[in-house]
Design goal:
With 209 residues, this protein is of the alpha+beta class. The chain contains 7 helices and 5 strands. Strand 3 and strand 4 form a beta hairpin.
Length: 209
């Protein structure tokens, strides 16, 4: 009987020790995985922003459609100024301007068309995956576009792309996810990652910046 009690006590001690270690390691594991996933999601959001800015430079507006945005990157072109020659410091000091140098042919500036995909991301970039949130089963970012009127009455075209913590952190410790979301909500911030805004003009900034 004594031996049985000793075995039970040893097992209980081992179980308690495991629980203690796990309680310490759990938030550490969450922080590590959160950092990994956040980095991947932020990279995607930055690429969405890059594509949206290019789209607006051609169409004078943003788009709330991934189909439209991806089709634009795949098939449209951007104007690129090809430069040949430059003004030396001595010519600038002598009063030469680029406009004058262009007229006499001292320097050349030619406008050429380049593929949006090639110029912004590279031919091998998986542009069709732009819409998908990393670490999910092809769930898509929420994206929209619109117009915000400033306090001075100026209408500014805006866009927003975002993902909630519960989506890209799915599968991790739920209590840790809830703690993270509660913390950001108390700061009156979006409980996730997003770039741009549909309610204010923030120069297309990401909420991690």
């Amino acid at each position: 009987m004594k031996t049985v009690i000793q075995i039970v006590l040893v097992l209980a001690i081992i179980a308690l020790a495991y629980l203690c270690v796990d309680s310490i390691q759990r938030p550490i594991r969450f922080i590590k995985e959160h950092k990994l996933r956040s980095k991947a999601v932020i990279n995607n959001l930055k690429d969405i922003r890059t594509a949206q800015i290019a789209y607006k430079s051609i169409n004078d507006r943003f788009t709330g459609s991934f189909d439209t945005l991806i089709d634009f990157v795949k098939h449209d072109s951007l104007k690129l100024v090809k430069k040949e020659g430059s003004l030396s410091d001595s010519l600038i000091e002598a009063g030469w301007t680029e406009e004058k140098a262009l007229k006499v042919g001292m320097i050349k500036r030619d406008t050429i068309l380049v593929s949006v995909l090639d110029s912004l991301f590279g031919k091998q970039y998986p542009i069709d995956s732009l819409r998908y949130i990393p670490f999910t089963n092809k769930e898509e970012f929420a994206m929209g576009a619109g117009v915000v009127e400033t306090g001075s009455g100026v209408k500014v075209k805006v866009f927003e792309a975002k993902v909630h913590n519960n989506v890209y952190l799915n599968g991790l410790e739920q209590q840790e996810i809830d703690n993270l979301s509660d913390k950001t909500l108390k700061l009156e911030r979006y409980p996730g990652l997003k770039v741009g805004s549909l309610t204010e003009t923030n120069n297309n900034a990401g909420n991690w910046e």
